[in-house]
C-alpha cells in the first residue's frame, strides 16, 4: 500500500468517526440530548414496574418449566416410537429433544437470574438506605457535640 493511499484511508476514517455518536461524556451546558427534558432524560422506573418484571420472570420460570417438560416427554416418546419402527427420523427427533432440554434450562436460568437479581437489588437498596440513615444520624450527633463545645 502506497503512503498516499494510506493517508487517504486515514482521512476517510477520521471523517466517518466524527459522524458517530459518543456516549462516554455528558454534552456541555447540561444538555443530554433529552430535548429539553433535562440532563437526566426521561427514563424512569418505579418499584411497581420492577415488581412486574420480577413477577413475570418468576411466572415464566414456573410455567415454562412445567409445559416444556410435557413437550420433551412427548417428543421423546415419539422419537422412541419412530426408532422402534426403523425410521431414521426417530434419532433426529431424540437429538432435538435432548437439545431442547439444554435450551429450556438456559431460559429457566435466565428467568431465575432476573428474579433473584431484582430481589437482591431491592434488599441491597434497603440496606444502603439504612446505612445512609445511620451515617446521617451519626453526623447529627457529632454536630450536637460541636454545638455543646461551643456553649462551654
Features:
single chain, 152 residues, 3 helices, flat, AG1 protein
Assembly form of the protein: single chain
Enumerate how many helices there are, as a single number: 3
Helix content estimate: over 70%
Kindly state the mean pLDDT as a whole number?
A: 77
Q: What is the N-to-C succession of helices and strands?
A: HHH
Polypeptide structure, described:
- The protein has helices at residues 3-18, 47-84, 89-151.
- The protein folds into two domains: 1-43, no CATH class; 45-151.
- By secondary structure, the protein is mainly alpha-helical.
- Helix 2 runs antiparallel to helix 3.
- It is built from three helices and no strands.
Question: What's the arrangement of secondary structure elements?
Answer:
Blueprint: H1 3-18, H2 47-84, H3 89-151
Helix pairs in contact: 2-3
Amino acid at each position: 500500500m502506497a503512503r498516499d493511499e494510506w493517508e487517504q484511508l486515514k482521512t476517510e476514517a477520521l471523517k466517518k468517526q466524527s459522524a458517530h455518536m459518543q456516549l462516554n461524556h455528558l454534552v456541555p451546558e447540561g444538555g443530554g440530548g433529552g430535548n429539553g427534558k433535562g440532563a437526566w432524560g426521561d427514563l424512569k422506573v418505579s418499584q411497581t414496574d420492577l415488581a412486574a418484571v420480577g413477577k413475570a420472570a418468576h411466572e415464566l420460570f414456573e410455567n415454562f418449566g412445567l409445559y416444556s417438560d410435557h413437550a420433551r416427554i412427548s417428543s421423546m416418546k415419539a422419537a422412541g416410537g419412530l426408532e422402534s419402527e426403523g425410521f431414521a427420523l426417530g434419532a433426529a427427533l431424540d437429538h432435538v429433544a435432548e437439545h431442547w432440554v439444554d435450551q429450556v434450562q438456559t431460559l429457566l436460568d435466565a428467568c431465575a437470574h432476573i428474579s433473584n437479581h431484582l430481589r437482591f437489588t431491592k434488599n441491597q437498596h434497603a440496606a444502603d438506605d439504612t446505612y445512609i440513615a445511620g451515617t446521617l444520624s451519626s453526623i447529627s450527633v457529632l454536630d450536637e457535640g460541636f454545638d455543646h463545645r461551643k456553649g462551654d
